[in-house]
Amino acid sequence: MKIEIPSYFPHLDVRLWYAESSLIGFSATNGYHLEMLFLDPGQIGKGYGKQIIRSLIHDYGVTSVDVNKQNENAVMFYLKSGFSMVSEDATDSAGRPYPILHLQYSGKQK
Question: Residues 73, 103: contact at Cβ < 8 Å?
Fold first, then answer.
């Protein structure tokens, strides 16, 4: 997957996120769908993810995201951020055995 991800970048709207002058993470969207959101591991738990997802929703119109069901921290993050599950697939888009949850923004943040 590490090899695949860079090949997607030319087709996505990629944003780098900074706190002061330090890069803390990046996101990539395709239309209104959040394709990826990654934070530097040392920056997790500091509120940056909340700020970024709010900006992506309110400033860039993000309304959906897919997340690996096994990534429980990410699932909880998106659910707390106002997303709800609309469907689930047993495999990812490449047919790998990673269950994927399809989430839609409902606006009800917890």
Answer: no
Q: Kindly state the tokens that stand for 9.
A: 């970048």
Do the beta carbons of residue 103 and residue 69 sit within 8 Å?
Answer: no
Q: Which amino acid is at 38?
A: F
In angstroms and rounded to an integer, the radius of gyration of the C-alpha atoms of the chain is: 14
76: part of which helix (H) or strand (E)? helix 72-80
For the record, the structure tokens of 82 come out as: 């106002």
93's tokens: 């888009």
- State the pTM of this model: 0.87
| Cβ neighbour number for residue 27 with a 10 Å cutoff | 22
- What does the pLDDT profile of the chain (110 residues) look like in tens digits? 566 666 777 789 999 999 999 999 999 999 999 999 999 999 999 999 999 999 999 999 999 999 999 999 999 999 999 999 999 999 988 899 999 999 999 986 65
Query: Measured between alpha carbons, how far apart are the two ends of the chain, in Å?
Result: 32
